[in-house]
Amino acid sequence: MKQEFTITIYTENSIGLLNRIAIIFSRRKINIESLNTSPTEVHGIHRFTIVINETEEVVRKLSRQIEKQVEVLKAYYNTGDEIVWQELAMYKVPTDEIAEKVKVERLLRQYGARAVVIRKDYTIFETTGHREETDKLVEVLEPYGLIEFVRSARVAIIKESHGFHEKLMEFEQSAPGVELVENEYLSKQEEVFDM
Description:
The protein is α+β, with helices and mostly antiparallel strands. It is built from seven helices and nine strands; from the N terminus they run E-H-E-E-H-E-E-H-H-E-E-H-E-E-H-H. The strands form two sheets. Strands 5, 6, 7, 8 and 9 form a five-stranded antiparallel beta sheet that branches. A four-stranded antiparallel beta sheet has the order 2-3-1-4, covered by helices on one side.
């Protein structure tokens, strides 16, 4: 049965990786509902947060396929119960409508929205929350002349995770990098490559 999954991918920051990951989804005809990339707490490591609706078996296979990419360090998949997540939403509304109706101001407070830009012709509000909450505020503001609405991609933190930094350190302890070994033939090129 299909359900919503959030895939979290830890990667090196490299050009072209986003395209290769997107191809993995498009080849399987899987629609990406939300995609976010950002740096992590570990310098040089980035995080992709991808939301899809699919069966767990397909998501498991996808995660394994993604991990085969050279720059990918680890891919996790979680249901909504296993993560803490938010989305940012912005709403542009005519200022004269807001100024005249105290009811709108009360509604905005009820949804935790705050003004980020106030001009004569329009006011922009922002709020964070789950999709249902931000969608509900769209419905509430439409009668007051909602001019524009935009929502960000999901940002999520895995509840049971102790952080990828800790996992990275554990990996480094269990499989430390190979020590630098001097190549004994490097200074003897003529002798080694003599034809």
